[in-house]
Protein: CBS domain-containing protein
Organism: Pyrobaculum aerophilum
Amino acid sequence: MKIGVIARRHPITAPYNISIKEAASIMTKKRIGLLVLVREGRLFGVVSERDIIRAVAQGISPEEPASLIATRGVVTIEADEDVIKAAKLMREHGVRHLVVTKGGELYGVVSVRDIVNEVLQLKQAVEGGALDEIVPIRRQRRGL
């Protein structure tokens, strides 16, 4: 299965220079674990829950820009890559989220939870004999 099928499209983004406090507020309101920071419409970096916790523990002011704590060397994967490759990348880099790109452009975000949920749903479908019904519905829902 291609990672673009499971990725959450149109990820929540914010300007790279918002404050850490604003980033945390967006993440709380949107119930997300990763905020994609952009600069001039391009991927700048990401801020995760772990980044915010680390900043608090280090006494960094919440008024500082989120870019100060952002991960800049973002691990990305193309939407047409396999789910197994995504899982391997996560393990190799010790991350719980990947930014998904399509043709070099921001496409979505996928988390470990997204992958596990998809695998479990497919397992249930196979066991229940409903796989032929689920796959076309998912593709249609994802716009593929």
Observations:
- The first helix runs from residue 3 to 6.
- The chain has one domain: 3-142.
